Amino acid sequence: MQCEPCRTGHSEMCENLGNNLDRPGGFAQYYTVLPRQIARDVIYRIPNGISYDRASLGEPLSSVYACQENINVGFGDIIVIIGAGPIGCFHAKLAKLRGAKKVIMIEINDNRLKTAKQFGVDHTINSLNEDPIDAVRKLTNGKGADKVISANPSTQAQAQAIFMAKRTGIVVFFGGVAKGALTELNTNYIHYNGLWIYGHYGSNSMQVQKSFELAISDEFEAEKFITHILPLSEINKGIALTKSGEAIKVVLHPNDQ
């Protein structure tokens, strides 16, 4: 909270984070919490009666929470989410909690599309079977969506996303793509339709706290997202379940056998 990004409300861009890559992280039996992390007020007490499993969703939810707060997802909005992975499902649930009128989910995996329905998704589109741009236009009476969130690692999805938004709509590039990959964008279309392009990453300290409080609340229904609980020794199985679309969120217990 001493650098310019922090002082202007963007602690997610803090210049004094240090290098955390040299220390064991989430996929380890133990994790060292440093004094500077405690000083940054990023440690939250889990209330009595709240499981560690539910509380663990506070961190992955935080960036989703920040994104929707920053673009002001709200009552009456039509939201398109491209990617029905864990993050896409978080986006769907949160958009509905924030009052979105219609949530449209686009994905290439039918299992994930089916699963996404339980989180408030109103319409699903398999982009392997139909043109997602045409499908979104039909579902929005030709206008396009208020906000389009590309929550996946595809440059093609980013390029298509701008054509799904209404005039003066917002397009969010939420998922990072492979390093070195470039997305070709029709900037004339962006220009003449007054689109806002927003690259989202991270969350500030207040948004982290709010997302943690939401994750452990009854409204969020965290248990629906946690489809598999495995010991840390089975991490490869957890990754495979996620890749296949069978799992939404896999929780690993570090000290279970």
Short description:
The chain is of the alpha/beta class and 257 residues long.
Describe the structure.
This protein is an alpha/beta fold and 257 residues long. The protein is built from twelve helices and eight strands. It has helices spanning 4-7, 35-39, 52-55, 58-70, 86-97, 110-116, 132-139, 155-161, 187-192, 205-215, 222-225, 235-244, and strands spanning 78-82, 102-107, 123-126, 145-150, 165-173, 196-199, 226-231, 249-253. Strands 3-2-1-4-5-6 form a six-stranded parallel sheet, sandwiched between helices. Strands 7-8 form a two-stranded parallel ribbon. It starts with a helix and ends with a strand. The mean pLDDT is 92.
What is the element layout, followed by pairings?
Blueprint: H1 4-7, H2 35-39, H3 52-55, H4 58-70, E1 78-82, H5 86-97, E2 102-107, H6 110-116, E3 123-126, H7 132-139, E4 145-150, H8 155-161, E5 165-173, H9 187-192, E6 196-199, H10 205-215, H11 222-225, E7 226-231, H12 235-244, E8 249-253
Parallel strand pairs: 1-2, 1-4, 2-3, 4-5, 5-6, 7-8
Helix pairs in contact: 4-5, 4-10
